[in-house]
Specification:
binds adenosine-5'-diphosphate, 3 domains, Creatine Kinase, Chain A, domain 2, about 50% helix, alpha+beta, binds magnesium ion, nine-stranded mixed sheet, globular
Length: about 725
């Protein structure tokens, strides 16, 4: 067989950018055209229905069947007019990604056999029972009582994909436990709303609601689809398990913010047009640091909607990549040795009165509020740093954290010099200073001076996993393929719990006779002292930091299965239950799913690695070795022995190296298979995952090392797997 790699390479160079059909209207005119948003609702719902519906969404009132029927009727009409023939409850199972099962709108108008009509009732809109027995539930729902149901989330608008009306829903078991990400996310948003609103009342009694905001930055790789198809590891695991580093990769840093390659530019354009139709406010696009790595980011929005939009755009990204002859890689570390992909979660809180609670204010009052929230967030992250790490940790993200510009696997907070200085000042101020409270006094504490300096607080400390960036925190440890909800559930929950505690402590001081402002100051001062260990502005990569972090009591665990334990510590269970986000049973069940997923991912990778080594690498290396032996043989035929020894020295050296490496590789693969067999016999998911982590994973690098060395010596013409230089530089 001629080498598929070269055939593909020949084709790749002929590829041109795909022409993109540019919408005739300007963006604002077609923006959101596939979304049943308020504007569309106004056209398809009666004024009364719309008003009641908005009340339900904005004030969290319960939704009655009558209203659901009215909304369903309008939604159906809107969807059918836009070519939809089917509808689906769109939900977010714990497997990651989204799930949907399509049903047609048709129903018999009378007895079976009569003609059909399009039907969609409030009942169908509000609740469904998908046959969801094969979604992971961590044992909450056995396959024989497969009664999970999906329920409409009216706070995220329905949308149309191709011919299907998609209705965002939560997914819960028959007994009420969350089987998805959306359910606990909504609960955490509720909790943080409640807690933050109460705290806001110390400063402004007119605040009625606090929103959590999210702006994600989605990083991704594009690989030519021909090259992709010839790499079984990319196809089956989303990352390369083998491959020697390219001589040139990102050393010159010439890709970041460079001019966008034409095929990719066409892809991005297409993607944006599509995103706009779904009302996703895509704002930024650029090359990322690694070759063939790119990023897109929208304008931030309310967290629940923003999470849904990220999930939707990830699936649109995949589809559109195909149209442009690319494959999209969302894996956190598709290529060793160069940057992996993250998804920075820019997060903030803001009031219904339009005040950003993480934005330094103009008045002393607003600045005390700002500092109150920042300090409480510090406390929340300090107390729950292990849990926050667990929220973003997966088999894939483990490869990224701590390597090539990604933050390390230790959670710390970067505040920047200005905010740090304000906190220092507050901490050391004598209580006398702090208690003589009027606006002017507070100004003397420096708190009112924050805004000017903060404006140009540009933090480029990329190694910080959780950084303050002027008006928000950036949770940078999140992985590119993740559902943002996972991190957002934890972050909003821990902040909610912290704010409730703060309120309780301050109120107690007030009840004991302290003035409100003194009480707030006193508690903040305590918190600043206590949460110090979480603040770190230095280089997160250094060995010193690892040692220092351990001393400070930060969680430094690197084993994914053990990191996940943070969800079920007594402290975490109490926290999640106290804010009403997840029950103990749910937490345990969800961890089972996490361990199982971890094991399966490693299992698949181990199998693929074994196949590649036995079916590709060893046969190719042997073939080359045989050609060399042939050559040596011929040399001996032509020359006398003394000369032949000399002339064949190079070949015999390589022949021996190949033999040596092959035998090491073979024995390591056998040992890996053995380790898997032993691990597979373990019943408990947690222990099985630990066994995979401790006894299977170490072989990956050991095997790869020798394979990559073979890649360097074997004739390029024989090598069938596209090399790194081809995968990351051709587009
Ligand atoms: P950078 O690469 O400098 O971090 P980007 O512009 O790529 O910044 O992305 C920043 C993201 O943060 C965007 O999605 C932006 O809308 C979002 N963002 C800005 N302000 C806030 C805020 N107050 N709360 C949440 N997200 C925010
Ligand atoms: Mg950013």
């Amino acid at each position: 067989m001629s080498n598929l790699r070269f055939k593909v390479l020949e084709e790749v160079f002929k590829k041109k950018a795909v022409a993109v059909s540019v919408p005739e209207q300007i963006t604002s005119e077609y923006y959101g055209k596939y979304v049943f948003n308020k504007e569309q609702m106004a056209k398809y719902l009666s004024k009364e229905t719309l008003e009641t519906f908005i009340e339900v969404v904005d004030k969290g009132k319960t939704l009655d069947r009558g209203l659901a029927n009215h909304v369903a009727a309008g939604m159906k009409m809107w969807a059918i007019e836009r070519g939809a023939t089917h509808y689906t409850h769109w939900f977010q199972p714990l497997t990651g990604g989204t799930a949907e099962k399509h049903d047609s709108f048709i129903e018999y108008s009378g007895a079976p056999g009569s003609s059909v009509i399009e039907e969609f009732s409030g009942k169908l809109l509000a609740q469904q029972e998908p046959d969801a027995s094969s979604f992971p539930s961590g044992g909450i729902r056995n396959t024989f009582e497969a009664r999970g149901y999906t329920a409409w989330d009216p706070s995220s608008p329905a949308f149309i994909v191709d011919d299907t009306l998609c209705i965002p829903t939560v997914f819960i078991s028959y007994t009420g436990e969350a089987l998805d990400y959306k359910t606990p996310l909504l609960k955490s948003l509720n909790a943080v709303d409640k807690a933050a609103t109460e705290v806001c009342h110390y400063f402004d009694s007119s605040v009625k609601r606090v929103f959590s905001y999210l702006g994600w930055e989605q990083e991704y790789f594009l690989v030519d689809d021909g090259l992709y198809a010839t790499r079984p590891d990319l196809v089956l695991t989303g990352r390369t398990l083998l491959g020697h580093e390219s001589a040139k990769n990102q050393q010159l840093e010439d890709h970041y913010f460079g001019s966008i390659p034409t095929r990719v530019q066409a892809y991005m354009k297409d993607l944006e047009f599509e995103g706009y139709k779904y009302g996703i406010p895509l704002k930024t696009r650029h090359n990322e640091v690694a070759p063939n790595q790119f990023e897109l980011a929208p304008i931030f929005g309310e967290t629940n909607l923003s999470v849904d939009q990220n999930l939707l755009i990830m699936s649109i990204m995949k589809k559109i990549a195909r149209r442009h002859g690319f494959r999209l890689l969302l894996h956190e570390k598709p290529f060793a040795g160069i940057n992996g992909s993250g998804k920075h979660n820019n997060w903030s809180l803001g009031t219904d009165t339009g005040v950003g609670l993480l934005t330094p204010g103009k008045t002393p009052e607003e600045n005390l509020q700002f500092i109150t929230f920042v300090v409480n967030i510090l406390m929340a992250v300090w107390k729950n740093n292990a849990l926050l790490k667990a929220s973003i940790m997966t088999a894939q993200n483990a490869h990224r954290l701590g390597a090539n510009e990604a933050p390390p696997a230790i959670i710390s907070v970067f505040l920047g010099s200005q905010v740090s200085a304000v906190l220092d000042k507050l901490e050391t101020s004598t209580s006398k200073e702090a208690i003589t409270i009027d606006s002017k006094q507070r100004m003397q504490l420096g708190i009112a001076k924050i805004p000017e300096v903060l404006l140009d607080n540009t933090d480029r400390n990329r190694t910080s996993p959780f950084a303050f960036t002027g008006n928000r925190f950036e949770f940078r440890a999140v992985g590119s393929s993740a559902n943002c909800a996972s991190g957002m559930i934890v972050l909003n929950s821990v902040v909610a719990a912290q704010l409730f505690e703060f309120k309780k402590t301050v109120d107690a001081k007030i009840a004991a006779g302290s003035s409100k402002d003194k009480a707030i100051f006193d508690v903040l001062k305590e918190y600043i002292k206590e949460s110090k260990p979480i603040c770190f502005d230095g280089n997160g990569y250094s060995e010193e930091w690892k040692n220092e972090a351990k001393k400070r009591g930060l969680d430094c665990e690197t084993s994914v299965p053990l990191i996940i334990d943070a969800y079920t510590t007594t402290q975490s269970i109490r926290l999640f239950e106290s804010v009403g986000v997840l029950s103990e049973r749910e937490l345990h069940a969800r961890n089972e799913v996490k361990w199982e997923t971890y094991t399966k991912k490693i299992q698949i990778e181990a199998r693929v690695l074994g196949d590649l080594v036995m079916n590709h690498i060893i046969p190719i290396a042997t073939k080359y070795q045989s050609a060399l032996l042939d050559n040596v043989y011929k040399i001996y035929q032509v020359y006398d022995k003394e000369k032949a020894v000399k002339l064949s020295a190079h070949d015999t050296g390589i022949i021996e190296e190949i033999s040596d490496r092959i035998s090491i590789i073979k024995s390591k693969v056998e040992a890996l298979v053995e380790a898997r067999k032993v691990a597979n016999k373990i019943e408990k998911e947690r222990e099985k995952a630990i066994a995979y982590h401790d006894t299977v994973v170490p072989y990956f690098d050991e095997i790869r090392y020798h394979v990559d060395k073979l890649e360097l010596i074997v004739d390029d013409e024989l090598w069938t797997l596209p090399k790194y230089r081809e995968l990351i530089f051709i587009r």
